[in-house]
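Please predict the structure of the following assembly.
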Amino acid sequence: MRPLGKTERFDVEHVVRNFSMFRSPVETAPFYYLDNAAMTQTPDCVIEAMYKHERGWRANIKRGLYGPAEEATQAYEDARQTVARFLGTSDPHEVVFTSGATSSINMLALILGYGMRPGDEVLLSLLEHHSNIVPWQLLSDRTGVILKFLPVKEDGCLDLARLGAFINERTKLVALTHGSNVSAAITEVAAIVQCAHQHGAKVMLDGAQMAPHGPIDLDALDVDFYVFSSHKVYGPTGVGVLWGRRECLQEMQPAFGGGEMIDAVTLQKSSYASVPHRFEAGTPPVTQVIGLGVALDWLMHQDISGMKKHLSGLAERIIAGLATIDKKSGLINIFGPALGKERLPLVSFSIDGAHPHDICQMMSDRHGVALRGGHHCAQPLHDHWGIQGSTRVSLAIYNRVNDVDAFLNGIEDCIGLFC
Ligand SMILES: Cc1ncc(COP(=O)(O)O)c(C=O)c1O
């Protein structure tokens, strides 16, 4: 399927035709997929590229001096170039392949931890996914590093007015989400980076929820590390990215040892390969990396500003629809920035008297709507709000008005049933 040219108007029906799962037989019950913040669907071109790689002669990369091995190595390194392009950097050597955002953050915590001392500080926030909390807690337990947490405001955005009180000469790293998987808040990065760098601290952004919504401009962000996962950017599972500024990566020891990450090995000591290879020990997920490259290339060929307008329109329809239902019931609490404010295209909410798991079960069973309910791996944020969990509806490039309307109909039904 030929992707949309960049100059063509965004046409969701055209986009949908890139995904075979939307071409199910007419007799199957309708299914509305609105759990995209957990995982997006994969366009056919990604599946075909991975299938093509697996069904021919496959070979390991960086080792063999014969055709299929050289082709696989080339495809793998081409994907690295594509990721670099997606991140707006000219240096593919700043791109490290990992198994996902979680493993990228764990790797960073392990490595940066070598250089941290008891009393050094890492600044996180109350908005973070557990993947950007627990690795730092493990580090803190090991090293005595102190964790601090930037608070959030009523609207689910970071309270940047308090930034100055949280960053000081002991701060070694500020590690924050670029966009919240629960409140949908988008982090205003400039003030954070300026304050952190003034104090000699590095900045890492967790881009797991931001990367699905188009190319990242790392030059403009001016951060030191950036992470994201493939399966949320229309790519396969099992692969992700740790991007690091070259001078930062060059100062870092590897986290894991093994084949292909070395320069020379003796029984006493080893020296390491240059970046990024020193961070990719052993055989990487070659097929998935190739798939990720194709997925990002596909995404970059879409009309990104058209997509953003389309998705923010759908998110507004969700918020306005929930507000209308709330006018009648008075039972719905919507979290995150208010209507009209910039946000990710996802909406978390609660319904008084209905457990999120029951809502999700009912929405699936009676309406064919796939949502996510629970704490969304952001328990501290839900604790802060004084609730056990919320229900989340999250959008991707292929979602249409009928998905949103099926969701809103289902929620009305839900309220009638439960409350
Ligand atoms: C904001 C955020 N960070 C990190 C992660 C972890 O990503 P993964 O499970 O792909 O490693 C997620 C997953 O939902 C997320 O939403």
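DSSP finds 13 helices and 15 strands in the chain. Residues 38, 100-102, 129, 131-132, 177, 181, 206, 208-209, 229 surround pyridoxal-5'-phosphate (CB under 6 Å).
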